[in-house]
Design a protein that fits this description.
This protein has 829 residues and is an alpha+beta fold. Helices cover 28% and strands 25% of the residues. It is built from 21 helices and 45 strands. The strands form 12 sheets. Strands 38-42-43-41-40-39 form a 6-stranded mixed beta sheet, with helices on both faces. Strands 3, 4, 5, 6 and 7 form a 5-stranded antiparallel beta sheet that branches. It has a 5-stranded antiparallel beta sheet with strand order 30-36-33-34-32. A hairpin with a 4-residue loop joins strand 18 (226-231) and strand 19. The longest helix is centred in the middle third of the chain and has 31 residues, at 483-513. The chain is elongated, with a radius of gyration of 31 Å. The relative contact order is 0.07. Mean pLDDT is 77; it is low at 1-54, 448-488, 506-529, 695-708 and 749-760. The structure holds 2-acetamido-2-deoxy-beta-D-glucopyranose. Residues 544-828 form the Protein kinase domain.
């Protein structure tokens, strides 16, 4: 199925039309659905309708079996029809012996599906039933009586199930009040008048012609913007609106939290984040649907009532390279105007029939010590930056990449001196403006190999052949179908059909053995698979019933654990999380997407009943507090170079949180206890983002919690000012002083024997004067005695100068974290 990457819908009017024609014929050949058959079907399902009092609704206590129509080998078994005849609802055949409950457009030749109840768990073709149970729930029962899907209307006054003219399948009570509706849980399609809200999202199908869930989602993000996100097997990322442009420049707003959008019958769409569009064929007589297609593009379609085919009247992307995941990792995507994926030089394709699997390195990077860089001019890879700098030289940037074993390449923007080190090469494409060059990290020997030098051309390329047609208008009309092409597509579709049957059969067996929990996890799809949901029982087992406590902080106790895959983890039981499950999930999913070498990696979480747990990587050497202040412990004294490295790493981590993250995050509790050191004494910041989780609790409580780590808190906390990143800068300043002096600042302050705050300021003032003076002999006395004078003077001076500026009372005078990083780095050279 090399056609999977077919981007024809993008730019090619003809292809859409031809595909529709082909689908039409495919249906005709494969299912022998014809008008007469439809009539026959009507007659066949008549008894079912009869039971439901006239065919317009289902009454409580009735059920319809799938066999009521399958004798005719029909594609569909109609249970309900909307009064205007535009929609029908019933069993929909997805494979020889597998059905879903779906709503489809009766006027479309391919019976296009608008909604599906059980897209990822079809039921058997024999013995399955849709039952409007006596208890009030509408349920889909498999052949063995197990409920595959059901509405939450049991024990309510539910009285009828109807299909409305809008295409909304509803459960209503005796007074006609809507208790449940299919509009509340769309699949990949939004219909006119169906609202997009914080609770609804569209999830693409996994391939053309299939109903099962795919990798793309259209949803309201927590910043109130409508977005498109790719959730791949390894990584996930937002690809629309352009993540490089701020919301204002995209004509969006993040301030309207109502999170609401709706497509009007006329073809206009408007949402609370200011996102709007209008169909190219505005007017209210057209049947429309807004569908997130399997290729990650969002398209508005209009139905041609005479031919039964769809045409595109609006879409997000014209060039598909902006959609993430189509070409896979280590590739460059081109659209000319066909989609073309190619491996980077020195890489080979993983599976030539499926480019989304990307390419792999021919040589093992880990096996070499000696690296060099190969330039790929005018290209960039989006996301997965280890670090980002401005105004650095290309040499510095190179070193930043060499110093990190995970660095695969770096991007460099000449002129601005922008440098990005990359941990993962994904979403690659040519990027003429702004011009960035990518420098690939390669083993030194490879650069010289003759075969590599032989050609500068791409080593592999996949071409998706398609018929070209000159297109100028946006409407994609049903043209005269090209018979050969249609025939070709028909056979492709027949193959696809066979494949579906095989896959479904396979799934069937797996499905029988291992039935997943009844309801598909709501929050799951917006979270990439690196990051997952754990069950409480799983964590109980991993931590041996929470035996080994690693420590307790304001936010909760932390336990050591080992997962089934032998990964060591730290499991934190969160206290005082005041939120509902859904909010908790969305907050956590933000934290979970943050990846930086100086931040503790979050592997997942657990939310069950009252339990709220966070699972993160286990860091070998414990906290900086223990190593620095616990003179009794047998841990070695932290050497000067290690201290400087900790200062730099913590600054990098905070700079990332403040400036680079998907969402701007203030840590709010920076202190040595929250700085962990790994095997190589590289610092990793823990507990970031947790403040946000607790924010919805009472304000007073939050403040008292912060007061718990007094000594590190910025004065604005006490003044009740809004808190921003500068509060972290203050705490960082305190940590810097402690790193240099090797004692808690609070202890140091007590020596002054005055009120804490006063003494604090005094000693800072004294330190300022000393730093400004000529004579630097005091330094030897000041720096941690355990180092026996073995430290770098200029580095110590820089650290102290930064520390002093960070603890400025007036927050506007404190530097930003990225500025701190630059200053610290300037000495590393
Ligand atoms: C927010 O969006 C809603 C829905 O689109 C709209 O009715 C409301 O006026 C907007 N509020 C503001 C303050 O713009």
């Amino acid at each position: 199925m090399a056609m999977a990457l077919d981007a024809s819908l993008e730019k090619n009017q003809m292809t859409t039309a031809m595909a529709m024609a082909a689908i039409k014929s495919a249906y005709a050949y494969t299912f022998t659905t014809s008008i007469s058959l439809l009539l026959l079907l009507m007659i066949l399902v008549a008894p079912a309708n009869g039971r439901s009092h006239g065919g317009s609704y289902l009454a409580r206590g009735t059920s319809v079996s799938v066999e009521d129509g399958t004798k005719a080998a029909a594609t569909t078994v109609t249970i309900l029809a909307s009064p205007n005849g535009a929609f029908a609802c019933g069993f929909y055949r997805v494979a020889t012996n597998a059905f879903t409950i779906s709503i489809w457009f009766t006027g479309s030749s391919g019976k296009t599906v608008a909604w599906t109840a059980n897209r990822d768990a079809p039921v058997n073709g024999i013995g399955s039933r849709l039952a409007f149970r006596k208890d009030g729930a509408l349920a889909l029962l498999d052949y063995n009586g197990a409920a595959v899907w059901s509405t939450n209307t049991s024990a309510t006054g539910a009285s009828r199930v109807e299909l409305l003219d809008s295409g909304d399948l509803v459960v209503v009570d005796a007074d006609g009040r809507r208790l449940w509706g299919s509009f509340d849980s769309p699949t990949d399609t939004l219909l006119p008048s169906q609202p997009m809200t914080r609770h609804t999202k569209l999830v693409s199908a996994s391939a053309r012609g299939l109903l099962s869930s795919g990798l793309y989602t259209f949803y309201f993000d927590i910043d109130n913007q409508l977005k498109l996100i790719y959730n791949g097997p390894e990584v996930g990322s937002v690809y629309w609106p352009d993540p490089f442009i701020n919301p204002l420049a995209n004509h969006r707003t993040t301030y309207n939290s109502s999170q609401y959008g709706v497509l009007e019958q006329t073809g206009r769409f408007a949402a609370s984040d200011n996102f709007k569009f209008a169909a190219s064929d505005l007017g209210d007589r057209v049947i429309r649907r807004l569908t997130l297609d399997y290729d990650g593009n969002l398209r508005l379609y209009s139905l041609n009532a005479t031919t039964g085919s769809w045409s595109v009247s609006w879409m997000v992307f014209r060039g598909v390279c902006n959609i993430h995941g189509l070409c896979g990792k280590n590739t460059l995507c081109r659209y000319i105007p066909k989609l073309q994926c190619s491996c980077l030089r020195g890489f080979e394709v993983v599976d030539a029939s499926d480019w989304s699997k990307g390419c792999r390195r021919k040589a093992n990077l880990r096996a070499t010590q000696d690296f060099s860089f190969r330039k790929v001019a005018g290209a960039d890879f989006i996301g997965y930056d280890l670090l980002y700098w401005e105004r650095v030289t290309i040499q510095n940037c190179k070193h930043l990449c060499l110093d990190n074993a995970n660095c695969q390449a770096f991007g460099y923007r000449q002129g601005e001196g922008k440098c990005f080190t990359k941990v993962y090469l994904f979403n690659g494409k040519n990027f003429p403006n702004p011009h960035t060059d990518i420098y690939l990290k390669v083993p030194k020997g490879m650069l010289l190999s003759s075969s590599e030098l032989a050609s500068d051309k791409v080593t592999h390329a996949c071409h998706v052949h398609q018929k070209e047609a000159n297109t100028s208008s946006l409407m994609f009309q049903d043209g005269s179908s090209n018979f050969k092409f249609g025939y070709f597509l028909t056979s492709a579709l027949t193959l696809l059909f066979i494949e579906v049957v095989l896959i479904t059969a396979g799934c069937w067996i797996v499905h029988k053995r291992d039935r997943r929990p009844e309801i598909i996890d709501e929050g799951y799809t917006i979270i990439s698979s690196q990051f997952r949901i754990f069950s409480y029982r799983e964590l109980q087992k991993a931590t041996n019933c929470f035996q080994e406590e690693l420590g307790t902080g304001g936010s909760g106790a932390v336990y050591k654990g080992v997962l089934d895959d032998e990964r060591k983890v730290a499991v934190k039981k969160l206290n005082d999380v005041m939120q509902g499950e859904q909010e908790f999930r969305s907050e956590i999913s933000v934290i979970g997407r943050i990846y930086h070498m100086n931040l503790v990696r979050i592997w997942g979480f657990c939310v069950e009943k009252t339990h709220r747990l966070l699972v993160s990587e286990f860091i070998e050497n414990g906290s900086l507090a223990t190593i620095l202040f616990d003179h009794q412990s047998n841990s070695p004294v932290l050497q000067w170079s290690q201290r400087y490295n900790v200062a730099l790493g913590v600054a990098k981590g905070l700079a990332y949180l403040h400036h680079e993250c998907l969402e701007w995050i203030v840590h709010c509790d920076v202190k040595p206890e929250n700085i962990l050191l790994d095997r190589d004494f590289q610092p990793k910041i823990a507990d970031f983002g947790l403040m946000k989780l607790q924010q919805r609790g009472s304000n007073a409580q939050m403040l008292s919690k912060v007061h718990g780590t007094r000594g590190y808190i910025a004065p604005e906390w006490a003044l009740n000012l809004p808190i921003n990143g500068k509060a972290d800068v203050y705490s960082y300043g305190v940590v810097l002083l402690e790193l240099v002096k090797g004692v808690r600042l609070s202890r140091w302050v007590v020596e002054g024997e005055e009120g804490v705050e006063m003494a604090d300021i005094c000693s800072i003032e004294i330190l300022k004067e000393k730093l400004a003076g000529e004579d630097q002999s005091w330094l030897l006395e000041f720096v941690d005695h355990r180092l026996d004078g073995d430290f770098n003077h200029s580095e110590a001076i820089v650290m102290l100068k930064i520390a002093v500026s960070c603890v400025e009372e007036e927050r506007s005078r404190r530097p930003s974290m990225s500025h701190v990083v630059e200053t610290l780095l300037s000495l590393v050279e």
